[in-house]
Amino acid sequence: MKLSNVPAALALAAALMLCAYSCKPKNTANAVSADAAQKTYVPPGKYDEFYDFVSGGFSGQMSVYGLPSGRLLRVIPVFSVDPQAGYGYSEESKPMLNTSHGFIPWDDLHHIEASQTNGEIDGRWVFGNGNNTPRIARIDLSTYNTAEILELPNSAGNHSSPFATENTEYIVAGTRFSVPPDNADGDVPIDSYKKNFLGTISFVSVDKNSGNMKIAFQLKIPGINLDLSHAGKGPSHGWFFFSCYNTEQAHTLLEVNASQRDKDFIMAINWKKAEEYLQQGKGVKQQVKYAHNVYDEKTQTATSTIETEVTVLDAMALPGIAYMMPCPKSPHGCDVDPTGEYIVGSGKLAALIPVLSFSKMMNAINNKKFDGTYENIPVLKYEDVLYGEVQKPGLGPLHTEFDGKGNAYTSFFISSEIVKWNIKDLKVLDRAPTYYSIGHLSIPGGDTKKPNAKYVIAYNKITKDRYLPTGPELAQSAQLYDISGDKMQLILDFPTIGEPHYAQAIEASLIKDKSKKFYDIMQNENTYAAKGEPNAKVVREGNKVHVYMTAIRSHLAPDNIEGVQVGDEVYFHVTNQEQDWDIPHGFAIKAASTAELLIMPGETRTLKWVPEKVGIYPFYCTDFCSALHQEMSGYIRISPK
Ligand code: CUK
Ligand code: CUA
Asked: Which CATH class is domain 523-639?
């Protein structure tokens, strides 16, 4: 520890903690626009204009809100089990949460990215990253199901993820925590970090038709921390930009260790160049283990495959893949404007916003104007790549979104505000307080070539005094601002699930009409589907008992089950016979140590139960489905072994 750094570090720590108290405005009511109610009121029975897909942070799930009303429409289970939907409890869905470490019922979902075509949101899929056990999920926007989860090997702290290239050629994921590669000995001293720890960037290709994901290749990079990233677009298509901190490669991230440098880096990756090397066979095949989980709509069943190989390209050894651009202290956000020319880094410990220029970067690269190397990667000069700096914009810049009219909107955690500034002349145009301590912000299409800049939404870390108190824990909060005029106007607060990080708001017209209403039972290829009540039956195979059960208003069949013994493996395969929108049935059984099932029309879901005690156990439909819902029940008799 350098002693001279200590006072600065303490002052910074104080500033970081202070915000929750100091940024409370005198009169928050004044900050709300007078016509807010009119602007956010969506009358009963009317639809919102946007879907807002919001990360659920440490809940592991994704929530869907309507905008501008702020109404919660749906919670989509992604990385965590969900008793309400039976996700991670039914036999059909359990494989979705399998990993190379076994079944993991939780993760921390940070960022949402919508699929793009020609740099615009196309409304097909949204992607989310699992920050803890590195995974990427793909959610289908016709069923709102998690369709696929891909684990990433050689990776930890999958934070700089899952950002898309212009045509969703790739979903790209960078490591926040460097670790020894999976095929190396992991039992090494932590202070051998510099020698043994590495970062990676995974390029996950996405099939244009099916959406299926595959790790095309991984880039091996130095043991720095990648924080966030965005793809180039237009002229910078083919490049990807990452904010890096801890370029000191310290193994303990106390501020005094990892933030000694005045500048860290934005790393520019030429992925087209990497593709060339790949074609030339410069990749090294590495034996690893990672799970690839796919939900099959036909069989309505997820399968988990453990894959065993990735191709790794060494960005430190293959010239032309990586370049380092200096960026003031510990950049967090790394955002590319709609023209693809400007790259905004946000040094979270800096009091300015650097805007880097892609064309200047290309000039410097083409003229080989380098300022030495970092781990064999050429470093460019700050002056050579800098377009300009926004001076004194606020404290603690984190993330930036764009309106497509030449303006940028940056969130400031410490000064708790959104600042609008002009990209060309770098002048601050407007600022609006957030309550309190904003993290991410999003504008519909705000990280694409074509934003629809009607609103900016703030996703805040602290909710203190905004809602009725609910004990020590308060819901986190989003705030909606109208940005159609010159000035931002706060028009709505709404609570969110978990911790909202990034979000993507999508015009409803892009997706609402293809939303599935029910599954065609005739297309149901689940092995255990019972189509029609006459096909309901109980089949014993050794100690396994398969109950082919049908559910239709208002009857479960069979509803009296006997001949089952303690220790048998009982599988209730429940098929919902309904062929109508929004008529799910549920299924639960007394003392079965698992959640319920929720079965959509035309679907089959299976609950496994190993009874441990003799007795009579009732089961019933858990979702009120008709006037005779209470009659949807039955008994199973468990006899001695
Ligand atoms: S991070 Cu959450 S405020 Cu994980 Cu994207 Cu910046
Ligand atoms: Cu089916 Cu209630």
From this structure: mainly beta
Domain boundaries, the chain: 1-76+392-514, 79-223+283-317, 523-639
Q: Give strand pairing partners of 138.
A: 127, 148
Rounded CA-CA distance 621/521 in Å is: 19
Atom of ligand 1 at shortest distance to CA of 440? 3
508: tokens are 């409803």
pTM of the model: 0.95
Asked whether the bond before 519 is cis by omega within 30 degrees of 0, the reply is no
Which of 335, 502, 504 gets mutated to test ligand 1 (max ligand atoms within 8 A of its CB)? 502
Phi-psi region for residue 324, left (φ > 0), alpha (ψ -120 to 50) or beta? beta
Check whether the bond before 68 is cis (ω within 30° of 0): yes
| Ligand 1 pocket check for 217: Cβ under 6 Å | no
pLDDT value, residue 28: 53
**Residue among 596, 546, 556 at smallest CA distance from 576:** 556
Peptide bond into 162 cis (omega under 30): yes
Q: From the CA of 582, how far away is ligand 2's center (Å)?
A: 12
Please give the Cα distance from 87 to 596 (Å, whole number): 9
Residue 559 DSSP label: -
Q: How many angstroms does the Cα of residue 386 sit away from the middle of ligand 1? A: 25
Instruction: Tell me, yes or no, if the two domains 1-76+392-514 and 79-223+283-317 fold the same way.
Output: yes
Q: Is 623 in the pocket of ligand 2 (CB under 6 A)?
A: yes
Instruction: Give the Å distance between the CA of 47 and the centre of ligand 2.
Output: 28
Query: What are the distances in angstroms from CA 618 to CA 122, 249, 537, 615?
Result: 47, 59, 18, 10
**Could you give the ipTM of this predicted complex?**
0.96
Decide: 250 and 184 in contact? Cβ < 8 Å: no
Cα 460 from Cα 438, distance rounded (Å): 4
Question: In which band, very low, low, confident or very high, does the pLDDT at 32 lie, cut at 50, 70 and 90?
Answer: confident
What is the three-state SS of 303-350? EEEEEEEEEEEECCCCCCCEEEEEEECCEEEEEECCCCCEEEEEECCC
342 burial (CB, 10 Å; 0-12 / 13-18 / 19+) is buried
Q: Which CATH number fits domain 79-223+283-317: 2.130.10.10, 2.40.50.140, 3.40.190.10, 2.60.40.10?
A: 2.130.10.10
More confident residue, 208 or 13: 208
Nearest 5 degrees, angle CA 341-CA 347-CA 349? 165
> Mean pLDDT throughout 231-237?
98
Give the DSSP per-residue string, 429-486.
EEEEE-TT-EEEEE-TTTTSSS--TTEEEEEES--TTSS---SS---EEEEEEE-SSS
Tokens representing 375 are 């781990």
Do 266 and 241 contact (CB within 8 A), yes or no?
Answer: yes
How many other C-beta atoms can be found within 10 angstroms of the C-beta atom of residue 474?
16
> What mean pLDDT is reported for the chain?
94
What are the pLDDT digits (tens) for 523-550?
999 999 999 999 999 999 999 999 999 9
Ligand 1 centroid to residue 500 C-alpha, Å = 9
Give the separation between CA 605 and CA 591, rounded to whole angstroms: 19
Give CA separation, 304 vs 82, 97, 148, 182, 470, in Å.
Answer: 19, 9, 10, 20, 40
135 lines ligand 1 (CB under 6 A): no
